[in-house]
Amino acid sequence: MPSAQRSEIMRAVKSRDTKPEMFVRRLLHRMGYRYRLHRPDLPGKPDIVFSSRKKVIFVHGCFWHGHSCKRGNRQPKTNADYWRAKIERNVERFAGQLEDLAQKGWTGLVLWECELSKESNLRARLIQFLSEHGNQKSPDRVTNA
Q: What is the CATH number of domain 16-131?
């Protein structure tokens, strides 16, 4: 693939409102949860933020964040040293951001792109995460009477 074509493809890669992120957001909305997006005052600008619960969700692409799945383990064919170093920096930076969030009293959930295919499993995981430590009523959850 010519360098100019590869550059064009890489410029098109988005950091927010990706297909996996939109899938999770739509599912949460259908489930009755309300949330904020990409709060810049929180470490890592989490994709989805539940302020009253002090919980955040990150929706990660497997390749970009070095997941151990088949897609995340793919090795780049060109400029491999650069990409390995970049992904390693992403992993290290994110670990620090999770630590910072925890120190501020926030709980984070990472959803990997490869985990989103089975909606029933994802739904159960989201319910479990969002209901932990919280039997109190919360304004970010809409109840269907």
A: 3.40.960.10
Which is nearest to 58 in space by CA: 130, 109, 123, 124? 109
Evaluate whether 73 touches 64 at the Cβ level (below 8 Å).
no
Nearest in space to 43 (alpha carbons), one of 112, 88, 113, 103: 103
| pLDDT tens digits, 129-139 | 999 874 343 44
What SS3 string covers 105-136? CCEEEEEEHHHCCCHHHHHHHHHHHHHCCCCC
What are the sequence ranges of the domains in the chain? Answer: 16-131
pTM: 0.82
**CA-CA distance, 131 to 135, in Å (whole number)?**
7
pLDDT in tens, 23-78: 999 999 999 999 999 999 999 999 999 999 999 999 998 988 889 888 888 888 88
